[in-house]
């Protein structure tokens, strides 16, 4: 039975919310909270969505994993660990611009494969400004490389990127599935992005440092405030990673591992809890929870089922072509709006297609690539981009939206191209 | 005791329409840490702190990092010159809203404001908000000490 009113009302609420997020007329979390309340209220009144269904729509597996990892990062944040790594990279570069970009980009990427990439960028960016200033270099290429490379690299692992957490939870992908399916493809895309950035910023990177030796005056050990906490959190993180590798065999949910790791770290470090909880990104968690509730309304009203039917009836589109289209459509939507609501809304659609007998395995990967690489395209495409841009506004070299389009958009296009190419080549493998 | 009795009546000021280059010269010439900003009618509209002017020439990272004690050498950022653009900005674009008191204000209140807002100087205005003087932390603080019985009794 199709309830047309319910479908129209729920779609209107969702589209208005997306519009507000896209135009930044209202804070995205506030928009999501208001939208979800409206969805439940009207849904209950029109009897297409109930309060119980709203609670059920929340994927606590995703929230638990994000929350656990946020606690671990929150413990690591004030210790100076991130400063230590950035300074170590700067010394290794000997103050040479290209090497500095490669090393800082690599450090940020590796960190953001295991930790939240926004936090990573938030912590590395100020040190990057420090390093480029004492070297007498323009910080823009390094800051943008960090955001773009960590956005790209984060797609490689289950915990590297919030859309991956969502997809893994919905598709039942394990940590190792990402390492065997996503990592190799992302590696190529990441290298291409690095070479492209090297080319796009060639003029800035030709500029030589005014005081090369300045980096050697920075002592990484001096940048560390709390070595004991670093050691403890890194040990816990290491053990958590080990359990991530085998979580499928132990029938453990990733969220269970992250929450256990967080609780062990809290007991071991015994931080000032108030301070630690202040560092947790509650607005992100609330954004997720509210979006789950809002999208749950769309699903209950039958909108997402209709979309799935529409796609299913799209005729004799070959699965490969459909996958490639998914990568690009999701990438463009992610660049314009935000990859999280897009991913949350598409998950039930794909789940519906699976019920209809379509092999959606490759589509999940297409979704991950599109959502991840698409964020590179615009200054608002990912939270890391937004942060880097607003940080740069407080420096002598603000990054404008136009500059981002000139540097970030080519990175998005090239990474999506490589993603599509490898998707086609390895289609049979990705379908398993 | 009011702040009027301890303030200095000769005050160096800048106009809100002056540029920062002019203001910088005033700071150097008179060796002061703060300049009250007045408009053409002589009304107090803001204050320009030495530190606000200096941020133009300090490295960006000093504003972005929580802690940079470990940075022993500032390298190429040792001596940053402000840009011509920055120096041609109007004082009104950089000034802070004034924390000021009426000339009838008591000394304890004046000192508490200086202390709470972490200021070194407090502009003093009359009923029409025209600048009539300036009282420094030292002016106000020692005026209070003078009233302590064990000192005034000596």
Describe the structure.
The complex is a heterodimer of chains A (432) and B (154). Chain A is built from 22 helices and no strands. Chain A is mainly α and 432 residues long. Chain B has 154 residues and is α/β, with parallel strands linked by helices. In chain B, the strands form two sheets. A three-stranded mixed beta sheet of chain B has the order 1-2-3. A three-stranded mixed beta sheet of chain B has the order 4-5-6. Chain B is globular. The mean pLDDT of chain B is 90. The A-B interface holds A 80, 125-127, 129-130, 133-137, 139, 209-211, 213-215, 217-219, 222-223, 225, 391, 394-396 and B 59-61, 63-65, 67-68, 70-77, 83.
The count of DSSP E runs of length 2 or more, i.e. the number of strands of chain A, is 0
Following the backbone from N to C, one meets helices and strands of chain A in this order, namely HHHHHHHHHHHHHHHHHHHHHH
Whole-number mean pLDDT of chain B: 90
Q: Between the first and last Cα atoms of chain B, what is the distance in angstroms? A: 19 Å
- Rounded to an integer in angstroms, the radius of gyration calculated over CA atoms of chain B is 18 Å
DSSP E strands of chain B, number: 6
Biggest sheet record of chain B: 3 strands, mixed
Instruction: Name the helicity range of chain A.
Output: over 70%
Proportion of beta-strand residues of chain B: 15-25%
Give the overall silhouette of chain B: globular
- Low-pLDDT parts of chain A are none
Compute the gyration radius of chain A: what is it? 22 Å
Residue runs with pLDDT of under 50 for 5 or more positions of chain B: none
Q: Report the span from N to C terminus of chain A.
A: 34 Å
């Amino acid at each position: 039975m199709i309830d047309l009113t319910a479908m129209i009302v729920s779609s209107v609420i969702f589209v208005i919310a997306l519009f507000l997020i896209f135009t930044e007329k209202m804070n995205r979390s506030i928009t999501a909270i208001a939208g979800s309340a409206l969805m439940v209220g009207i849904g209950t009144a029109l009897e297409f969505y109930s309060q119980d269904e709203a609670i059920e729509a929340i994927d606590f597996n995703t929230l638990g994993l994000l929350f656990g990892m946020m606690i671990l990062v929150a413990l690591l944040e004030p210790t100076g660990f991130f400063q230590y790594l950035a300074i170590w990279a700067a010394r290794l570069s000997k103050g040479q611009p290209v090497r500095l970009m490669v090393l800082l980009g690599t450090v940020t990427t590796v960190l953001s494969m295991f930790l939240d990439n926004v936090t990573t960028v938030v912590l590395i960016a100020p040190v990057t400004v420090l390093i480029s200033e004492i070297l007498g270099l323009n910080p823009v290429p390094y800051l943008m490389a960090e955001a773009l490379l960590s956005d790209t690299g984060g797609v490689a692992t289950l915990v590297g990127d919030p859309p991956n957490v969502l997809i893994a939870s919905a598709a039942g992908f394990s940590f190792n599935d990402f390492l065997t399916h996503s990592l190799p493809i992302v590696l190529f895309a990441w290298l291409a992005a690095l070479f492209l950035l090297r080319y796009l910023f060639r003029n800035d990177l030709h500029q030589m440092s005014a005081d090369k030796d300045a980096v050697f005056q920075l002592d990484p050990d001096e940048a560390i405030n709390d070595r004991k906490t670093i050691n403890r959190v890194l040990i816990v993180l290491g053990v958590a990673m080990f359990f991530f590798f085998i979580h499928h065999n132990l029938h453990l949910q990733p969220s269970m591992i992250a929450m256990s790791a967080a609780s062990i770290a809290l007991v071991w470090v015994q931080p000032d809890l108030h301070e630690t909880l202040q560092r947790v990104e509650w607005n992100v968690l609330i954004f997720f929870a509210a979006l789950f509730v809002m999208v749950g309304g769309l699903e209950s009203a039958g909108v997402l089922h209709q979309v799935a039917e529409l796609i299913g009836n799209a005729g004799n589109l070959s699965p490969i072509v459909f996958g490639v289209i998914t990568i690009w459509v999701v990438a463009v939507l992610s660049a314009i709006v935000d990859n999280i609501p897009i991913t949350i809304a598409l998950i039930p659609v794909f789940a519906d297609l699976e019920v209809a007998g379509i092999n959606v395995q490759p589509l999940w990967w297409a979704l991950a690539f599109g959502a991840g690489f698409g964020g590179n395209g615009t200054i608002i495409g990912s939270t890391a981009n937004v942060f880097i841009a607003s940080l740069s506004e407080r420096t002598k070299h603000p990054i404008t939206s136009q500059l981002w389009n000139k540097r970030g958009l080519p990175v998005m296009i090239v990474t999506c191209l490589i993603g599509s190419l490898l998707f086609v080549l390895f289609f049979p493998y990705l379908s398993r | 005791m009011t702040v009027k009795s301890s303030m200095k009546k000769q005050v160096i000021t800048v106009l809100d329409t002056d540029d920062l280059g002019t203001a910088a010269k005033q700071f150097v010439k008179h060796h002061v840490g703060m300049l009250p900003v007045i408009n053409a009618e002589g009304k107090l509209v803001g204050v320009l702190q030495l530190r606000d002017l200096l941020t133009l020439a300090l490295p960006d990272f000093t504003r972005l990092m929580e802690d940079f004690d470990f940075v022993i050498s500032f390298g190429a950022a040792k001596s940053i010159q402000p840009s011509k653009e920055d120096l041609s900005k109007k004082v009104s674009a950089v000034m802070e809203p004034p924390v000021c008191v009426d000339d009838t204000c008591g000394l304890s209140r004046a000192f508490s404001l200086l202390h709470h807002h972490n200021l070194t100087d407090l502009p003093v205005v009359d009923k029409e908000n025209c600048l009539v003087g300036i009282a420094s932390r030292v002016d106000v603080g020692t005026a209070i000490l003078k009233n302590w019985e064990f000192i005034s009794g000596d």
